[in-house]
Design a protein that fits this description.
Helix content is 27%, strand content 27%. It is of the alpha+beta class.
Length: 88
């Protein structure tokens, strides 16, 4: 089982952007994943969401960070190395 935590710029999946993905393989606690990305252009930002996740507007707009697509691709590559793909 893979335990996943996702941070986003808000609660609306159509308007808000992914900010980070953290995961741990429940059967192998040493096998962990954590990466961050910048928001996509035009993403909705809720102040309350940033308060909860602790990111600042400067951090989520950092052009040096990878895109949300790159983050998801890296997560899927990490996930492909896990024996079980059940997400929690």
């Amino acid at each position: 089982m893979i335990i996943v935590d996702v941070e986003a710029s808000g609660v609306d999946p159509h308007k808000s952007s992914l900010l980070s993905v953290g995961a741990v393989d429940f059967n192998n606690h040493a096998n962990r994943f954590y990466e961050e990305c910048r928001i996509f252009e035009g993403a909705h930002i809720e102040k309350e969401a940033l308060d909860v996740c602790g990111f600042t507007k400067v951090e989520i707009n950092d052009p040096a960070k990878q895109t949300d697509r790159e983050l998801v691709e890296h997560f899927l590559k990490w996930l492909s190395g896990c024996k079980e793909w059940t997400l929690a």
